Amino acid sequence: MAPALHPDWLAALQPEFDSPYMAQLRDFLVAEKAAGKRIFPRGRDWFRALDLTPPEQVRVVILGQDPYHGAGQAHGLCFSVQPGVKVPPSLVNIYKELKSDLGIDPPDHGFLEHWARQGVLLLNNVLTVEMGQAASHKGRGWERFTDAVIAQVNALADPVVFMLWGSHAQKKAASVDPRHLVLKSVHPSPLSAHGGFFGSRHFSKANAFLEKHGRGAIDWALPPLDAAAAPGRGALL
User: Fold this and answer.
1) Active-site amino acid positions
2) CB count, 10 Å around CB of 2?
3) Of 36, 44, 114, 211, which sits with the fewest C-beta atoms within 10 Å of its C-beta?
């Protein structure tokens, strides 16, 4: 059974939800929960990135690997954390590049829904993880599903910006059509950011491309948090 997510994504991805690999993935997740393992994010947030950013609204794609595996962090958007959670190191570096590129002061939170609601698809390669076990759900089927998401974005009529940070993201979107703008750099992790992420100016380049094609600039400045996150609608289980 497919989750209750945005109807445009549901229609586009129905063949994936009907595929045997998704049934196997669902069985795996059911078994993990039955064994008492904690899975992040919450089930209703697994498809949060898709729910917030319908296909025809996608203007930018940012790819992550898998969700944060600490309690209370992940909520379905790559690089983003829930309100009240300390900003992770990679996101700190993203904020530093935003300041250098566009002069935007870093916010005091790491909640990126403001970007997602403007058409920035914040998609992880794998959509679930076991608490404390990074990459624990790798190879279980999510990669095939998110490949299908990328294929759907690639086929959109309007041009899109792909921000590919690190070799993993670059491999994930290797077949993106050249009519889209593909921006590549190293990952913003503290281990690699000084090797080319800082100074890449991806945010201003993305906005220039979007404006050139009549799609409007992204407001990358994150507003202060004055309300809790709205719950997601979808769950596979």
Assistant:
1) 66
2) 16
3) 36
